[in-house]
Amino acid sequence: MGLMRVAARTAVISGTATAVSGRVAQRQAHAYDEKAAAQQVAGAPEQSDAPPADDAMAKIAQLAELHKQGILTDEEFAAAKAKALGI
């Protein structure tokens, strides 16, 4: 009889822990979704390690002009282009 009581208690504790864990995960996901929605409404740009595409293209065009003029070597141009692209 003692073994059944221990098994039942363990099952109840395990079930409760699972329910609480699921509820915490659900609350965190909901809070994250609300924060993301608020940032989109406020017009906040999403954070990114890469520069925006337009800025990168403008930078590459500028670098290409410097390369064409002979101010940058092939190696310098390639390194600066990779940096502009975030590579």
Q: Supply the number of helical segments.
A: 3
Count of domain modules: 2
Percentage of residues in strands: under 5%
Main beta sheet: strand number and arrangement? none
* Gyration radius over CA: 28 Å
N-to-C order of helices and strands:
HHH
- Arithmetic mean pLDDT: 79
Distance between the termini: 66 Å
* Shape designation: elongated
In terms of structural class, how would the helical and strand content be classed?
mainly alpha
Give the helix proportion (percent range): over 70%
Poorly predicted segments: none
Strand count: 0
Keywords:
3 helices, mainly alpha, 87 residues, SHOCT, 2 domains
What does this entry look like structurally?
With 87 residues, the chain is an all-alpha fold. It folds into two domains: 1-47; 48-87. The protein has helices at 2-42, 53-68, 74-85. The protein is elongated and about 90 Å long. The N and C termini lie far apart (66 Å).
Walk me through the topology.
Elements: H1 2-42, H2 53-68, H3 74-85
Helix pairs in contact: 2-3
Domain SHOCT: 59-85
Pfam families: SHOCT (PF09851)
What's a quick, concise take on this entry?
The chain has 87 residues and is an all-alpha fold. Helices cover 79% and strands 0% of the residues.
